């Protein structure tokens, strides 16, 4: 399993009339977690497209809202890859508030698609190589 934590603060523009972080923001928080998790492995999410010619479309997303996040809360997004990627990669996201309470859980699944052919392909070898030590 590979895990990475990243912090983000809830901005005023992200809150609804009740003062909660709007539920639609959690997809963005998951994306931030994914991008920063990939960056923590030593390359950028953009490299998939510009270097390896691979897109990663989201095919499913689940979210479980446990407690609200409020304006100015510092959130910790913990993103995990629990299985070695094949033709798909699954990111498990846990979001914690400043009290370290779990406030949200998410699961996001993405396919690897060759940008030239539009067909599903396996994860780039560099990603597999970077993750191998965490699964041995």
Describe this structure in words.
The chain is an alpha+beta fold. The chain has one domain (2-134): Hotdog Thioesterase (Thiol Ester Dehydrase, Chain A, Roll). The protein is built from 3 helices and 7 strands, in the order βααββββββα. The strands form 2 sheets. A 5-stranded antiparallel β-sheet has the order 1-4-5-6-3, with helices on one face. A hairpin with a 6-residue loop joins strand 4 and strand 5. The longest helix is centred in the N-terminal third of the chain and has 16 residues, at 25-40. The radius of gyration is 16 Å and the shape is elongated. The mean pLDDT is 96.
Q: How far is it from the N-terminal to the C-terminal residue, by CA?
A: 9 Å
Helical proportion, percent range: 10-25%
Q: Record the strand order, biggest sheet.
A: 1-4-5-6-3
**Rg over CA atoms:** 16 Å
Structural class of the secondary structure composition?
Answer: alpha+beta
């Amino acid at each position: 399993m590979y895990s990475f934590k990243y912090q983000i603060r809830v901005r005023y523009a992200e809150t609804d009339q009740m003062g909660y972080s709007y539920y639609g923001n959690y997809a963005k928080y998951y994306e931030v977690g994914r991008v920063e998790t990939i960056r923590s492995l030593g390359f950028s999410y953009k490299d998939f497209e510009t270097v390896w010619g691979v897109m990663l479309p989201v095919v499913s997303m689940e979210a479980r809202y446990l407690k609200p996040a409020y304006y100015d809360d510092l959130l910790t997004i913990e993103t995990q890859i629990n299985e070695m990627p094949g033709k798909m990669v699954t990111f498990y996201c846990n979001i914690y508030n400043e009290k370290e309470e779990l406030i949200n859980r998410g699961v996001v699944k993405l396919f690897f698609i060759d940008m030239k052919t539009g067909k599903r392909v396996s994860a780039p070898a560099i990603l597999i190589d970077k993750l191998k030590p965490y699964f041995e």
